[in-house]
Amino acid sequence: MSTNGQYKALLVDCDGTLAPVDMQVTPRVREAVTELAKLIPVCIVSSRDHHNIQWLASSLGFTAPQVSEGGARIFDPLKGETLWRGIMAAEDSKDIVGFLDGNKLSFLGIDGLKRVQSADEVTDWEVTRITATSLRPEQAQKIAAEFTANLPNVHSAVIIRTDNDDWMVDFTHVDATKASAAGRVAGLLGIKPSQLIAAGDSYNDLPLLEACGLGIAMGNGVAELKAGADYVAPSTWEDGLATAIEEFVLPAVNGTRL
After folding, report:
1. In what order do the strands lie in the sheet with 73-75?
2. Less crowded by CB within 10 Å, the N or C end of the chain?
3. pLDDT (tens digit, 0 to 9) for every residue of the chain, 258 residues total?
4. How far apart, in Å, are the Cα atoms of 88 and each of 26, 50, 99, 173?
């Protein structure tokens, strides 16, 4: 099959987009993305850590650079080597961890290569991502707004897990976002960001879709994402990504999209 269109790669969110729940990709979607990866690079762009994303990318046969930790790490899924990493300043990480720990709020983080869940576990302070979990909607919005105002070198992204309705806030370096990762991946692939297609479902995918040439929103996605998308797929529970690939991505890749 020829690939003579202007679109050269697919960047896809994990939870609620590629997989309905717990990184379990359905058979139809698995077949669709595996076949697509034979034509163009397919890159997962997720808030999950590199351990999870490397496993998932390898299981799907993806060889292109993958993005984890909300854009704070880009890595080679075959060798496991980090190609780019954005580390928050230690004082910023300490402020965030101290606040969450002090308020007895659950969080997950990555310090260097290891996962951490409490202040005591953070030893190197080479933190790429901290995720506050199990928040109320208004609580998530307030925490993100306060840290955005007070820590200018930190990016705060509100996330709603559309698979389990969990509200979270991701904290990364201000230059380590899903949108900035799209530009870095395009550079690694030798193409322009405008030649990327992105697919997502939650608030933190809004900048990703805006940074790419074409955007796909899942049917289960938030209204704001669907409003600005070029294509709205069925829900992830209905194998929506497979439908999007068949009806939208392949025509764009092959230059036959109307």
Report:
1. 66-68, 73-75, 82-85
2. C
3. 346 679 999 999 999 999 998 899 999 999 999 999 999 999 999 999 999 999 999 999 999 999 999 999 999 999 999 999 999 999 999 999 999 999 999 999 999 999 999 999 999 999 999 999 999 999 999 999 999 999 999 999 999 887 678 899 999 999 999 999 999 999 999 999 999 999 999 999 999 999 999 999 999 999 999 999 999 999 999 999 999 999 999 999 998 865
4. 35, 17, 16, 5
- Domain ranges, ordered by start, for the chain: 9-85+177-253, 90-173
State phi, psi for 82 to the nearest 5 degrees: -75, 125
Distance from C-alpha of 133 to C-alpha of 92, rounded to nearest angstrom: 18
The rounded distance, in Å, linking the Cα atoms of 156 and 169 is 7
Range 9-85+177-253 has CATH code 3.20.20.370: no
How many Å apart are CA 143 and CA 158, to the nearest integer?
A: 9
DSSP state letter for 235: P
| pTM for the full predicted model | 0.94
Residue with tokens 């994402």: 225
Alpha-carbon span 186 to 42, nearest angstrom: 12
Q: How many CB atoms lie within 10 A of CB 187?
A: 14
72, 178 contact by CB (below 8 A): no
Question: CATH number of the domain at 90-173, out of 3.90.660.10, 2.40.290.10, 3.30.1240.10, 3.90.550.10?
Answer: 3.30.1240.10
Q: Which amino acid is at 33?
A: V
Fold matches, 9-85+177-253 and 90-173:
no
